[in-house]
Design brief:
By secondary structure, the chain is α/β, with parallel strands linked by helices. Helix content is 31%, strand content 18%. The chain folds into 2 domains: 1-106, NAD(P)-binding Rossmann-like Domain (Rossmann fold), CATH 3.40.50; 137-383, TIM Barrel (Alpha-Beta Barrel). Helix 2 links the parallel strand 1 (16-19) and strand 2. GO terms for molecular function: catalytic activity; iron-sulfur cluster binding; metal ion binding.
Length: 401
């Protein structure tokens, strides 16, 4: 397939536009330059890069490619390939190439435990594009796994809604493991599982969860999210050293009270990790009914940067963490169309459940829960990060009967 794609690019009699001004796009620009394949333009869907220079090209919006290039061949480098294909189709563009196969064979050796995200991004692109080109496969790009509602912080603008929990609890390990086993039995491949809360380390049985995930051949990578308040025990180091595992730590300064000891522990035990710092958060943590027209909720959903962050919550698969936690909090009515209960005993057919998950992850226009969300676009109103609240925030409840 790689040879056929290269030949198509070399013989193209139309301008080639690269979709994706990111890590993978950078690799492809270099590859095309080395092979003498001219790139006429670069597009991207992120407002953060539109208008910036990317290797001599001013990045244009993906939604406006046809205005700049009426009949292009688009080389797609982004993981969200379906979103790009849909945007191109809306402009009458159906000539595109998934770049994933071009990247196969690139040296992805990793030398540092401060993880090389070039490696991860390229691996993701290859796997995701391969799955997109084979629609019979049930491939899940990323799944957030909620194991706890507990967190060492109480950030009033937390997009995962931890600030609303009055009596946060851990999920039982039996419930978590059953959900993992069921999802893996249904899916053909899961690129990444992200263990979240709250703070994943607040659940004392997190090693059992990680051990189960590591043993699942269909899961390619496990990311554990924490905030620098808890340092793992030395006897837990071997589990975190597994090549599938990445520890992602957000450094909130003084609030991350054990950041120094954690950094030292990670270095001592040679654990793959990434430490993030943030200057601002998007203002997207309120829960209220907006009563928007359908078209407005469709727009909120289409612009959402979290709509592909599948989240598994007590056996229910949601499109995003907001929907999952709003449901857990009973801050929205029970809306069965907004999730797939993978533990549904009434669905005895594996094929039917796979079909339902496939439809849910690819074909929805919006969720009913979107009407309770302020929206989460790639860029919008920002607030200072990690501002603490002394008590849980109030919200309207819709008790389950």
């Amino acid at each position: 397939m790689r040879t056929a794609i290269l030949e198509r690019l070399r013989t193209a009699r139309k301008p080639i536009v690269l979709s994706g001004a990111g890590i993978v796009g950078e690799q492809l620009i270099g590859l095309c330059r080395d092979l003498g394949i001219p790139i006429a333009g670069v597009c991207d869907g992120s407002v953060r890069v539109i208008g910036t220079d990317f290797f001599g090209h001013t990045v244009i919006p993906t939604a406006e490619v046809a205005r700049h290039f009426p009949d292009p061949l688009v080389l797609i480098s982004v993981a969200a390939i379906r979103d790009v294909v849909d945007l191109l189709a809306a402009q009458g563009i159906d000539d595109w190439v998934a770049a994933g196969p071009l990247l196969e064979g690139i040296d992805l050796a990793q030398e540092d435990t401060e993880i090389d995200f070039v490696k991860f991004s390229i691996e993701s692109c290859i796997t995701i594009h391969r799955a997109f080109l084979d629609p019979a496969q049930l491939f899940l790009r990323s799944v957030d796994l909620i194991i706890t509602e507990r967190c060492s912080l109480k950030c009033k603008d937390c997009s995962n809604l931890m600030q609303y929990y009055e009596q946060p609890r851990n999920m039982t390990v039996e419930e978590i493991l059953h959900s993992i086993q069921t999802l893996c039995a249904l899916a053909d491949e899961i690129m990444e599982v992200r263990i979240i809360g709250g703070d994943a380390f607040m659940h004392k049985q997190w090693p059992e969860v990680v051990g189960q995930l590591v043993g699942e051949a269909k899961i390619k990578r496990i990311a554990i999210y924490t905030n620098g308040a808890i340092v793992p025990k030395d006897e837990q180091a071997a589990l975190l050293q597994h090549p599938k595992v990445l520890l992602v730590v957000t450094d909130y300064g003084q609030l991350s009270r054990n950041m120094g000891p954690l950094r030292a522990w990670l270095a001592q035990h040679d654990v793959a990790h990434r430490i993030l710092t943030v200057d601002s958060w998007l203002d997207c943590a309120s829960i209220e009914k907006h009563n928007r027209p359908r078209a407005d909720n469709v727009a909120v959903y289409q612009e959402c940067c979290a709509k592909n962050m599948l989240t598994l919550s007590s056996g229910k698969l949601f499109r995003c963490p907001f929907a999952a936690n709003a449901d857990r909090l009973e801050a929205v009515p029970d809306l069965p169309g907004d999730y797939v209960n993978i533990l549904d005993a009434d669905l005895s057919s594996r094929d039917e459940m796979r079909r339902r998950i496939g439809h849910y992850t690819t074909d929805l226009e919006f969720l009913e829960i979107c009407d309770y969300c302020a929206g989460r676009p790639l860029a919008g109103k920002e607030v200072p990060p990690a501002v603490q609240t002394s008590k849980p925030l109030h919200y309207i409840k819709y008790p389950r009967t």
